[in-house]
Design a protein that fits this description.
Strand order of the largest sheet: 4-3-5-6-7-8-9-14-13
Helix content: 25-40%
Number of strands: 30
Largest sheet: 9 strands, mixed
Keywords: Pyridoxal phosphate, Transferase
Structural class: alpha/beta
Radius of gyration: 28 Å
Distance between the termini: 73 Å
EC number: 2.5.1.140
CATH class of the largest domain: Alpha Beta
Protein name: N-(2-amino-2-carboxyethyl)-L-glutamate synthase
Cofactor: pyridoxal 5'-phosphate
Family: Belongs to the cysteine synthase/cystathionine beta-synthase family. SbnA subfamily.
Number of helices: 22
CATH topology of the largest domain: Rossmann fold
Strand content: 15-25%
Number of domains: 5
Shape: globular
């Protein structure tokens, strides 16, 4: 518990970090009284904090919308991160003490808890694993069965769907379940314990928020929630918040928290908007602790549904279309329902409202597509049906696809040619190697590269979710191949495409993009802080999104559909063609391809060694950043999709060997391929003495060489860059 005699220091700390706070408390400089300090409401934080630009050295976590439509930014310093992890590690250690747990799995949504779970498991000495939340529920079950965790850290909504889809949850062998996220009632917890064959005390609910961190945990011994160290809690009524909030029930209070361990948040009297019952102190081990009996609901402008969603934003959507609307919003059985009564409404407005509401919570949309959450439901009530009781009889109009979407074939025409590329043996180049090398010919995709696969899947999933459609302008930062793939697909589906590029993009790629009616936006200068073009390109993407109504960013660097495209297609095709794969060589840039291939190999029990081929000068695997001549191989940052734990070996290749590899591939195999393929050939040669005789090696031939005619295959360019032509050196490097 925070000692109130530390309040003076806390106020000065907050003023030092957030000068605007001084204007809220007036001129008083000494002897601050907690009850006299302002409540930190959503309105104040939206004005001064959530949408502010933070210090780039701080970690930023984002949650769903504010009334302005912008996502909230919550900042953490290194000290905040340390406190968060320390508190949670100590708490989890106490919760599983004596349980015999050795293997822990995190299966949850987005946010701070999800991002730090594996670190906490590691500090506890547990073997760790995590499940991406966007996967279909069937794959969650497959991964739990394969890993066999003793401890499962998850959300009630996800656990609901796992239980519903699993034949026998007891067969998982889980010993402890720690919950985070939505409210978990005692009755729900008892049902779950029975289904998993556990004692009710083996399911432990924790309560926290992205702003404050860990707040409280449920003690089965005391039958109530106990606040974490460093937190001081108050309980207030709705009248203290003002506005039009209804009075609470007799023993109900809204939680207001002050944190003594949070620095980069004005964490004095932070209003949670969560309503608790039986708020009172108790004695724990001879020490007085604050506690409450249960969380019963959320009031105010925000509704808790996995992430926080603003009721204000939902009303804004409806009122944009229906001026005379009466609205009731309800969450029940893990589904969000919006009931609307309006004299001017007709059925055609329902899908429009539903799509716009769904845009408020993009992460929830991904969980819906994975069948981990139910659909958002918009219901148009008849005029004689009262909304107060929440009953809407049988007059329900569910969302249906708009006519302009329904007639579009997302896998027809040229799109049908994406994937199922051949696998061929490189019999000349490696004839004396003692092992077989087989090339997955991704350059034969219609767009000329492996990027066709993720480009198509990202667009298909966004289209199905109602996030894009005919007339949308897709914006992406790309140095070439992804841009060409997106330009091809967008042109076919009737969407615009804007490619944000930098001066390294080849003239050939620019001409291809122009031929496909893509608009090109060139970022001429690198980011001043990092010296890299990628951060500068991403900043430009955000500017364009703000300037252009109807635009959409697919975010190839963080979109899970990037790697899932290869998980579901590429590696499956390689295995079907070769039967056995001992080594898989794959170049890295966004890390989408290699992650999809590696996760498939792991999940299907393959013994394949995954070799990442990176460029010298790339920072992906901790190398020193330096000049890289070829876009699409390496990166100046660690991409969000990177999973280094899935990689068995990293081979860095210099630009000179990339050129030599490309030219050897052309001379010996008549394959005119791009720079990343040359890097892969060089990497195989680097490991030639390590690969056991008789091994089967698969390599990804990523893209066409025609796009490198003015660089890799230009004698004058090579001479200028390296001082020689590589005509002889390629033969020396790849002995035949």
């Amino acid at each position: 518990m925070m000692l109130l005699d530390k309040l003076q220091d806390k106020v000065h700390e907050v003023i030092g970090c957030f000068p605007w706070y001084k204007g809220l408390i007036g001129d008083e400089t000494t002897d601050y009284k907690l009850q006299h300090l302002p409540l930190m409401t959503a309105e104040i934080l939206e004005t001064h904090y959530y949408t502010a630009s933070g210090d780039p050295s701080l970690a930023v976590y984002r949650t769903s919308g504010t009334s302005s439509g912008r996502r909230k930014a919550i900042f953490y310093s290194e000290e905040d991160e340390k406190h968060y992890i320390d508190i949670k590690t100590e708490l989890f250690g106490e919760l599983i003490a004596g349980s015999g747990c050795t293997r822990a799995m995190a299966d949850m949504g987005t946010g701070h808890a999800a991002e730090t779970a594996l670190t906490i498991f590691e500090r506890l000495g547990l073997e760790k694993s995590a499940i991406p939340f966007e996967l279909p529920v069937e794959q969650h079950i497959e991964r739990i069965r394969a890993f066999k965790p003793d401890l499962l850290y998850t959300m009630p909504s996800i656990l609901d769907h796992i239980v519903y889809a699993a034949d026998n949850p007891r067969a998982f062998g889980i010993r402890k379940i720690i919950l985070v996220g939505e409210i978990a009632t005692p009755e729900w917890q008892r049902n779950m314990a029975r289904l998993f064959g556990l004692d009710p005390s083996d399911i432990i609910d924790t309560y926290g928020s992205i702003e404050i961190g860990t707040i409280a945990y449920y003690s089965h011994d005391l039958g109530r929630y106990i606040f974490a160290d460093g937190i001081y809690a108050e309980g207030i009524g709705t009248q203290e918040l003002g506005g039009e909030l209804r009075p609470l029930g007799t023993d109900e209070r809204i939680l207001v928290l002050t944190s003594n361990v949070r620095t980069m948040l004005p964490a004095i009297r932070f209003v949670t908007y969560d309503v608790v019952r039986d708020f009172r102190p108790v004695t724990v081990g001879g020490v007085e602790k604050q506690s409450f009996g249960s969380i019963v609901k959320r009031v105010g402008r925000e509704l808790k549904h996995g992430e926080k969603i603003s009721l204000y934003d939902i009303e804004q959507v409806v009122y944009r279309h229906l001026e005379d609307a009466i609205i009731r919003v309800k969450v029940k059985n893990n589904a969000l329902t919006v009931s609307v009564k309006s004299k001017s409404a007709d059925n055609s407005i329902i899908p429009v409202i539903r799509d716009e509401i769904r845009e408020c919570i993009p992460e929830i949309g991904m969980m819906i597509r994975g069948h981990l959450l139910k659909e958002i439901e918009v219901i148009l009530a008849a005029g004689d049906e009262p909304l107060e009781s929440g009953q809407v009889k049988n007059k329900k109009l569910y969302y249906q696809q708009q006519k302009d979407r329904a007639g579009v074939n997302l896998s027809g025409g040229i799109l049908a040619a994406i994937g199922n590329t051949p696998v061929i043996r490189l019999g000349n180049l490696f004839r004396n190697s003692g092992f077989g090398v087989y090339a997955k010919m991704e350059l034969l995709n219609p767009g000329g590269s492996a990027k066709d696969r993720p480009a198509l899947r990202m667009i298909q999933e966004a289209w199905k979710a109602g996030e894009i459609g005919p007339g949308t302008s897709i914006i992406e930062s790309s140095s070439g191949n992804m841009a060409i793939s997106l330009a091809m697909i967008c042109k076919y589906l009737g969407m615009g495409f804007i490619s944000v590029v930098d001066p390294r993009t080849t003239e050939t790629n620019l001409q291809i993009l122009k031929a496909l009616d893509a608009k090109i936006d060139v970022v001429a200068d690198p980011d001043p802080d990092t010296g890299e073009f990628l951060p500068a390109r991403l900043k430009r993407v955000q500017q364009l999104l703000a300037e252009l109504p109807g635009s959409f960013w697919l975010n190839q660097y963080g979109n899970p559909n990037n790697y899932l495209s290869h998980y579901h297609t590429t590696m499956k095709e390689i295995v079907a063609a070769l039967d056995r794969v001992d080594y898989l060589f794959c170049s890295v840039s966004t890390c989408g391809t290699i992650r999809g291939l590696a996760e498939y190999a792991r999940d299907h029990g393959l013994k394949t060694k995954i070799v990442a081929v990176d460029a010298e000068g790339s920072a992906i695997f901790g190398g020193n950043k330096g000049q890289r001549r070829f876009p699409g191989l390496g990166a100046g940052i660690v991409p969000p999709l990177c999973r280094s734990d899935l990689i068995d070996r990293v081979v860095h290749v210099p630009d000179s060997e990339i050129v030599a590899g490309c030219r050897a591939l052309a001379q010996d195999e008549s394959i005119l391929a791009g720079a990343s393929s040359g890097g892969i050939i060089a990497a195989v040669k680097h490991m030639e003495q390590e690969v056991a005789p008789g091994s089967v090696c698969a390599v990804i031939v990523h893209d066409k060489g025609e796009r490198y005619l003015d660089t890799v295959y230009s004698d004058s360019w090579v001479q200028n860059q390296f001082g020689h032509s590589f005509a002889a050196e390629s033969g020396d490097l790849f002995d035949r």
